[in-house]
Design a protein that fits this description.
Length: 140
């Protein structure tokens, strides 16, 4: 874990560059040495409280969504293809996907996708080779 912490905070390539905090569970793999490595790079590791399974519920729900709707249906070859798919899914998740907890509306709709008059034609936009589809009205 110490090596992974060092790789995550590497200058230029590190995933945690520019981050101030890292939330993690209380697994034994997050040792004092790995936390010290994170701190030396300016990232403060914060352990979640014990016995708090619902504390990180929003992130757990996103993991489940991306796994069920996307990753379980694809064969990925390397890190580059994984990054590409996750970027496309994140755009779909935040801009195009209806959220049931919010009255089945898009949380952050693109201006041209807002539904106006019902006389315009319905169009589809596909991501990841048609795996994810978004239907919207044609711009006036």
């Amino acid at each position: 874990m110490k090596r992974i912490a060092r790789n995550l905070t590497m200058v230029g390539d590190g995933f945690l560059n520019g981050c101030r905090h890292l939330l993690h569970d209380r697994d034994a793999k997050f040792s004092a040495a790995s936390c010290a490595t994170l701190r030396s790079a300016g990232v403060e590791p914060l352990a979640l409280p014990p016995r708090s399974p619902n504390l990180n519920a929003h992130l757990e729900r996103w993991y489940r969504s991306v796994k069920e709707e996307c990753l379980s249906k694809l064969l990925l070859f390397g890190e580059a293809s994984l990054r590409h798919v996750l970027l496309k899914y994140a755009l779909h998740y935040h801009e195009e996907r209806n959220h049931q907890g919010k009255d089945s509306v898009n949380l952050f709709p693109v201006a041209e996708d807002r539904i106006g008059t019902s006389s315009r034609k319905i169009r589809t936009r596909e991501r990841i080779g048609g795996l994810l589809k978004f239907y919207h009205r044609e711009a006036a």
